[in-house]
Amino acid sequence: MSSGALHNRANDWPEAVVVLNETGRSDIVLLCEHASNHMPAEYNRLGLSETALQRHIAWDIGAALLTQRLSALLDAPAFLSNYSRLLIDLNRPLGSEGSIPTLSEDTVIPGNSGIGEAERARREAIMFRPFHDKVSSHLAGREKDARPTRIVTVHSFTPTYLGVPRPWHAGVLFAGATELGEKLVNGLRDSGPALNVDANVPYVINRDSDYAIPVHGDDRGHEAVLIEIRQDLLTSSDDIDAWANRLVLALPAFSGEMAT
């Protein structure tokens, strides 16, 4: 998926969130906070090259397509971002170091250096709040209707980080949802004996550096997990389909209404 593919290319300032299948029957709600690498032209790529915006620093490569495929297979609602994580990261608490990064891995982000409170508030109002308000509204509606709800957020990670190889094919991150997380880890392991899948790798959930799982999941009393797939395993449509099918096979053990 190329920059801006989730929205009208003529619209430099799209809505913050794309919602798919909002009335889907599954008890699973999908979030993809790093779905797009789009930046409005006025930001001049934050001083970065176009090549840099194709890297992981700007988005989670493959995550949007995987989320879209899962939404269809599971008949699950999905919420996908429409702006690059470099403008404001939807999975970082506001005001945290990673919210509007000046350094991502080993890359300096010139356009985020020294920005004022007005610009921070602008990005929050245009990109961050509308996404999370839409998710919160959806969850509130499900709660009012007493619908079972489990949250699955979809991400991808780099094969190496600061020169250090990462051996895992996938990780399942969780805080309060221990049972759900462990079942998903085991389900993915069972889907392919050669797969290296583990819990809370290559990151861990931390309220100081994560947003969706603690806020939309744990704080609301919903089981919530974050799925990380290594990016070099999501490079083709066949790769996307393979991982979507693995996840579908792993999810029914604890999913309620599933698509038939």
Mean pLDDT across every amino acid position:
93
How much helical structure, as a percent, in the residues? 25-40%
Q: Please mark out the parts with pLDDT under 50 across 5 or more consecutive residues, or reply none.
A: 1-9, 253-260
**Amino-to-carboxy terminus distance:** 28 Å
**Main sheet?**
7 strands, mixed
What is the beta-strand fraction? 15-25%
What structural class do the secondary elements suggest?
alpha/beta
Radius of gyration: 17 Å
**Major sheet strand order:** 1-3-2-6-11-9-10
Our count of helices gives: 6
Query: Can you tell me the overall shape?
Result: globular
Q: What's the quaternary structure here?
A: single chain
| SSE string | EEHHEEEHEEEEHEHEH
Total strand segments: 11
General description of the model:
With 260 residues, the protein is α/β, with parallel strands linked by helices. The protein contains six helices and eleven strands. The protein has helices at 50-53, 63-74, 117-144, 178-191, 212-217, 237-250, and strands at 17-20, 28-32, 78-81, 103-104, 107-108, 150-157, 160-161, 164-165, 170-173, 197-199, 223-230. The strands form three sheets. The protein has a seven-stranded mixed β-sheet with strand order 1-3-2-6-11-9-10, sandwiched between helices. It has a two-stranded antiparallel ribbon with strand order 4-5. A two-stranded antiparallel sheet has the order 7-8. A hairpin with a 2-residue loop joins strand 4 and strand 5 (107-108). Helix 2 (63-74) crosses helix 6 and helix 4 packs across helix 6. It starts with 16 loop residues before the first strand and ends in a 10-residue tail after the last helix.
